Amino acid sequence: MANVNMERRKRVMRRSIRLGHCICDPKKPCPCDLFKQRDICLCAGERLESPTGPVRLTQLVEKAGCASKIDQAFLKQTLKDLPAADDPRVLVGVPAGDDAGVYDMGNGTALVQTVDVFTPSVDDPYTFGQVAAANSVSDVYAMGGTPITAVSILGFPVRKVPDETMYQILSGGIDKMNEAGVAIIGGHSINDGEIKAGFAVTGTIDKGKIVTNAGACPGDVLVLTKPLGTGIVAFAAQIGRAEAESIEATAASMTALNKTASQLMVKFGAHACTDVTGFSLMGHLAEMALSSKVDVEVVWDEIPLFPGVLDYAAAGILPGAIERNKESCGDRIVADESLPQETVDLCYDAQTSGGLLIAIAQKDAGDFLKALHSEGISAAAVIGKVAGKGSGLVGITTTGTRKIPSSEPAKAIAEPPSAEPRPEQLPVKSESEEVPCCSDAASPSRPEGSDIAQIKAKFTDFLGAASSPHGLDAYTKQAMSIALSVAMRCEPCLKMHLKKAKEKGFTQDEIDEAAWMGISFGGSPTMVFYEQFRNS
To answer: pLDDT for 110-148, tens place per residue?
Structure first.
């Protein structure tokens, strides 16, 4: 073959075969499946062709954005016995649980250092690079510091997505760091199964003007500078349920630097600050309250939200990171009993490149908010107050002015026109994914590989795609499957869908209601048919 060093291939493969393990992936035998199928030996330095064309980054990862981070409770439990730095020059270190570390350089100046890495929260590579940069410098801004240098960190699945994707991610990060006045002076990359990006950032700060998360005082007002909901919107986009307006609004917010908000909070003498990221508004606020030895309260109706977030919550589009955050800090949150669970859940949404949460004296809050608005930070709002000295409790109250919408399914976002999807972009069927039973009703009459077998396979794929959740969620489609099975009087269909419905948590009343929809179309014979299998 052209461009293949056969001597090197034979040498490497002999070594692998003798060991019984592929030398570039010990979990695989030699020869591996790739070699058998495509005559390529990666261990011998041979390369796969890089894919080309557009790619949706959030479809390539399990958890999007800061939802990919390890939860707060696990971190605290696992790391609690690690020794702290025994150095008097460490002004803010690991035990403080703050946004960044601070190290005294003498002469009244200190270094602020932080690192942040996560998976894509948006589909566009260039935008993701911007988000990664804005999120990484945010921890320095939260301390009141000025970021000056950064080192990039990148995980990338080489040859599994287009090479251009890596270039665009780094290009977006560089442009955003330039906007922040930060010099990128190096970087590190690894070949990883999922895309990840971030930066280790170093900044400077006046030793006498450090803003920590531990300085909130009774009577302070709580100001949040960006809306909530990036995690919910990212999850909605992953499952094809996000509106374009939501996606555009969160992308614009996530790429916006917290630089101006930081400078203004220092100017107006803020007492405490933290940026709201993966641990959620509740997680970061609870940590601020605990570190400051105060109790706080927020007014649910005053918390700014991105467009569509209330609708997604009402439709049950709430990512798993919410539950992990609730487990981490939920014992310190006291919510008004009149608040629906969905509204409380929103407060636990993991944010990516979220806003600053600032505690400032009430007398300065009005002027501070006006200054934020005049600088274009229009979403900034007073969301609560420090109630008094306490043990770190967070209360969520309501004025009743904001209502949760009815639980109508959110509309599916239209797929943008693009080139034919590549294999890695296509949905992968899991064992639990619903494929209509009728696709398996008959076996092909010819061997696999024949025209009939191919027709059957394509029809089965079509049925699987039709039954997968898109504009309608999986629960609704399961109910429809029961109704259709009854209406069509398909015995194997009904048995299978009754079983699946019970596995998904359907009550008997819900199953009966779905069945009677089918009976209403099929008449008395379908009623008799259903009663035969109702309890099967």
So the answer is: 999 999 888 888 889 999 999 999 999 999 999 999 999
Structure tokens at 306: 């991105």
Mean pLDDT of 37-60: 73
Per DSSP bridges, beta strands 381-389 and 294-299 are antiparallel
Chain region(s) in the chain for CATH 1.20.1290.10 = 466-536
Alpha carbon distance 524, 472 (integer Å) = 29
Q: Which residues contact 373 (CB under 8 A, 6 or more apart)?
A: 380
290-333 pLDDT, tens digit per residue, is 999 999 999 999 999 999 999 999 988 888 889 888 888 889 99
Cβ neighbours of 330 (radius 10 Å) = 16
- DSSP states of 118-142 as a string? E--SSS-HHHHHHHHHHHHHHHHHH
Q: Rounded distance, CA 262 to CA 198, Å? A: 21
**Catalytic residue numbers, as ranges:** 66
Cα 455–466–505 angle (5° rounding)? 130
The CATH H-level superfamily of 58-73+80-397 is PurM-like C-terminal domain (3.90.650.10)
Place of tokens 């959110």: 410
CA atoms lying within 13 Å on the CB side of residue 346: 26
Distance CA 152, CA 171 (A): 11
CA distance 270 to 209: 10
* Residues 210 and 102: beta-carbon distance below 8 Å: yes
φ, ψ dihedrals at 138, nearest 5°: -60, -35
User: How are the residues of the chain apportioned to helix, strand and coil, as percentages rounded to the nearest 5?
Assistant: 45, 15, 40
In this prediction, residue 126 carries a pLDDT of: 94
Fold of 466-536: AhpD-like (1.20.1290)
- Which residue did the predictor score with more confidence, 137 or 158? 137
* pTM score over 0.85: no
The boundaries of every CATH 3.90.650.10 domain in the chain are 58-73+80-397
The separation between the first and the last C-alpha atoms of the chain, rounded to the nearest angstrom, is: 60
pLDDT value for 290: 94
Closest listed residue to residue 346, CA positions, set 321, 380, 328: 321
DSSP notation for 74-100: HHHHHHTTSPPP--TTEEE-GGGT-SS
Closest C-alpha to 59, from 131, 160, 154? 160
Name the burial class of residue 283, with classes exposed (0-12), middle (13-18) and buried (19+) by CB atoms within 10 angstroms of its CB: buried
pLDDT at position 435, please? 47
